[in-house]
Design goal:
Its EC number is 1.17.8.1. GO terms for molecular function: oxidoreductase activity. This is Hydroxysqualene dehydroxylase HpnE. The structure is a single chain. By secondary structure, the chain is of the alpha/beta class. It contains 13 helices and 19 strands. The strands form 5 sheets. A 7-stranded mixed beta sheet has the order 7-6-15-16-17-14-18, with helices on both faces. A 5-stranded parallel beta sheet has the order 9-2-1-13-19, covered by helices on one side. Strand 10 and strand 11 form a beta hairpin. Helix 1 runs parallel beside helix 13 and helix 2 crosses helix 13. It is globular, with a radius of gyration of 23 Å. It starts with 6 loop residues before the first strand and ends in a 12-residue tail after the last helix.
Amino acid sequence: MTGDRRRALVVGGGLAGTTAALALAARGQRVTLVETRPRLGGLAFSFRRESAVGELTVDNGQHVYLRCCTAYRGLLERIGGDRLAPVQRRLDVPVLDPERRRLGRITRSALPVPFHLAGGLARYPHLGLAERALVSRAALALRRLDPADPALDDRSFADWLRAHGQSPRAIDALWDLVGVATLNARAEDVSLALAAKVFRTGLLSAAGAADIGLPRVPLGTLHDELARAALDRAGVRVLLATRARSLRAAPGGGWRLGVSSRPGQGHRPDQELAADAVVLAVPQQAAHRLLPAGALPDQDRLLAIENAPILNVHVIYDRPVLHRPFFAAVNSPVQWVFDRTAPSGLAALPGARGGQYLALSQSAVGEEIQQPAEVLRKRYLPELVRLLPRAAEARLLDFFVTRERTATFAPSPGVGRLRPGPVTGAPGLYLAGAWTATGWPATMESAVRSGLTAARAAAQGASTPQPAKEPV
């Protein structure tokens, strides 16, 4: 009977919360999802922007995923978005060096691991012959590491790389080329445990594990529109523009969540929502604010999990200057560049027909996140000309910047001991989010895995804090 179904509340409508809500509904629970923003998607979203050429659909940042991201791929399939974000047939990353005027590629073959990378590495022009040989040895040594070993969490990836003969050029032109994009930090500032997870899973677990998936549509289409439709079909009640103010245990069991509607989003009186179980799928600072005292051992450790920013630079030219979907760069302040012409709707704008929209994704930016757009313009436009000579002849139609100051948690050495699992000491209260102890860095995959784990724990009624176990 409907009245006998357990009631679950999910606080947060990002990927972790959406996943948890769908998983709980699939287990027969009555689910309400509360999200403070007027949309779903968390930090992987789109918005409409009136630009110099007309209204564009802009992703707040460029998000890609890998074939090994099985949980995120499962979510895409669940919401009907898998065909809108296809995976490369085979890994191929063009890597430009404007100083040496060389184009290299990170590629793989169909050979079994680890031989699938040998041919591409042998032809990689941004490293010398001896450096390539040492990279191969380090990769084999990395494959033998256990990311779950607590000792690895305290050591920096750069320290390990140097101990295994990696030159500064090898770290910059290969290890950080991949690591900065996936970990949002340079090797010096990365826990060896998280680096081992990324490289072992992405490059050394299966031949096709690192093949790249790239959305053909705005992120909002996937993570808001399709996700909301899937939640509706699952019977999940979704309350957008609704802020969780307080959480308290109810007399006799269960929870009461105090919520209020955001100003300007229509009047809805403050109320309390009742549930048997609550999943807090919010950032660590917000979770700390809502958690009752004593829900976690050393609860203030959540506040020690620092955040790291990501900067995105958006450039619109009057003609194509890039004839590939994306590329990475070495010996340049530019990191990764993506062609976003089609998803943005640029081609449909009368004033920009034939133009091209490039998005520069800049991770591990530090203080650059604070710099004015004009400073960034003077820094990046000349670099694009160095990388893409056709840009010298193109007319600039627009330039703007988006900033996510809390894009990810910082993957610093020691962060592993700060990340809690999904189960708290308060019966019926669970945690989800990319920052929880999934074993993964702050990726879409980590967020989805955390939602699945929290939903499983909530459905089973687990009520004692446990070490997190990575979902199979």
